[in-house]
Amino acid sequence: MKPPFKIAIAGLGTVGSGVLQLLDRQADLLAQRAARRIVVAAVSARDRRRDRGADLSAVRWYEDAAAMAADPEVDVVVELIGGADGIARQVLDTALDHGKHVVTANKALMAHDGTRLAARAEERGLILAFEAAVAGGIPVIKGLREGLAGNRLERVYGILNGTSNYILTTMRESAHEFAEVLAEAQKLGYAEADPSFDIDGIDAAHKLAILASVGFGRPVDIAGVYAEGIRHVSRLDIDFAEELGYRIKLLGIARLTEDGLEQRVHPCMVPRATPIAAVEGVYNAVVAEGDFVGRVVLQGRGAGAFPTASAVAADLVDIAAGRHVPTFGLHTANLREIPGVPIEGHHGAYYIRLWRASM
Ligand SMILES: NC(=O)c1ccc[n+]([C@@H]2O[C@H](COP(=O)([O-])OP(=O)(O)OC[C@H]3O[C@@H](n4cnc5c(N)ncnc54)[C@H](OP(=O)(O)O)[C@@H]3O)[C@@H](O)[C@H]2O)c1
Predict the structure, then answer these.
(1) What is the extent of the structural domain holding 47?
(2) How many structural domains is the chain composed of?
(3) How many angstroms does the Cα of residue 256 sit away from the middle of ligand 1?
(4) Best of 46, 161, 315 to mutate for ligand 1, by most ligand atoms within 8 A of CB?
(5) Mean pLDDT, to the nearest integer, of 130-140?
(6) Is the pTM of this model over 0.90?
(7) Residue 17: enclosing H or E segment and its boundaries?
């Protein structure tokens, strides 16, 4: 067997501690699949005293995650802190500058800076892997990039935010209004104290921009994504949708048209008989339509410690085993700009509810 593959993990919160537990419990399995052992050599988080659900006594602890990313004994740096800039970005840049492969779950950073980071990794012959950044445990990046490499995609769309899907599902099932269900979701830990990233479609927009890049071979363009969330969906809309044979879902849709690429996130009425209408609660689903394969539906848990750790582990096994695919499926020099179609140019069916104010 080759020498152990040494990793450093920046961020030991929900995902980071899930990764620690997976690496511990599946150590033998991963060693077989990667043909070498994957060993945690260093970690960094803010609070050293917090229990991370794993024994870290033999692991180097860094106060400064960026300094850890330069650790000469480490082969790969796993960034699980989050945020589009600040320390997470510093960790990735430092790791790549020091010749280390990188694994990240950070959709915000990949959506805003993914093309630059991919180019930087490429220049140095390094891997930038990000399966966990889109749809948690669902292997959608690998599925599109490698599994559907023989197809031209026409459309990629999906339920990309579990919190919004949970709220819409619960509104329908419980007959409660948006605000009540959101408050309940916050109590249960399904929604953040500041829920705007989830319910205003921003998190889904980040994931859609990344999917569009992988699916259509274009640079990531978060500025070109139209994002509208679910704040304005009422119980009444949900009831009307049911009556008409539809479910309301927050979808992220990337579609190639004659005019260019549409990238949009907004509530949609989907026919009740379609597979995506049956994706309920915190589950995610991604549908890809290719010219040779037809329709492919991938569904599963889009968030949470263990599902997301599963995606991180898959990236680690690939890198440890020496499997190397360009970040977005093509070398960055070959990613081609596709003109964006603004939402105003979108042709499609609309649901309009007219409400007559009482005289
Ligand atoms: N949660 C999910 O289900 C999920 C799913 C897919 C992708 N992601 C992505 O995964 C990433 C992590 O998410 P999460 O939910 O695990 O976040 P989280 O629970 O808030 O954990 C963040 C971790 O980063 C650490 N941290 C913060 N600032 C730091 C700094 N300056 N230096 C070193 N460590 C620092 C925190 O340390 P302390 O613990 O000491 O405070 C914590 O351990 C994000 O990019 C997120 O978008 C999350």
Answers:
(1) 5-139+306-334
(2) 2
(3) 34
(4) 46
(5) 97
(6) yes
(7) helix 14-25
CATH code (residue 245): 3.30.360.10
pLDDT in tens, 235-245: 999 999 999 99
- Tell me the CA–centroid distance for residue 14 and ligand 1, in Å: 7
As a whole number of angstroms, the distance between CA 290 and CA 295 comes to 7
Same domain, 120 and 243: no
Q: Can you give the pLDDT at residue 359?
A: 62
**Domain at 123, CATH number:** 3.40.50.720
The edge-to-edge listing of strands for the beta sheet with 246-257 is 226-227, 260-271, 246-257, 153-159, 283-290, 294-301
Higher-scoring residue by pLDDT: 109, 358: 109
312 and 220 in a single domain? The answer is: no
- Phi and psi angles of residue 270, each rounded to the nearest 5 degrees, phi first: -110, 135
CB under 8 Å to 227, separation ≥6 — which residues?
200, 201, 202, 204, 205, 264, 265, 266
Total count of residues recorded for the chain: 359
Active site residue 187: no
Percent of the chain clearing pLDDT 90 (strictly above): 93
- Residue 356, domain member (yes or no): no
Going by C-beta distance under 8 Å and a sequence separation of 6 or more, which residues neighbour residue 187? none
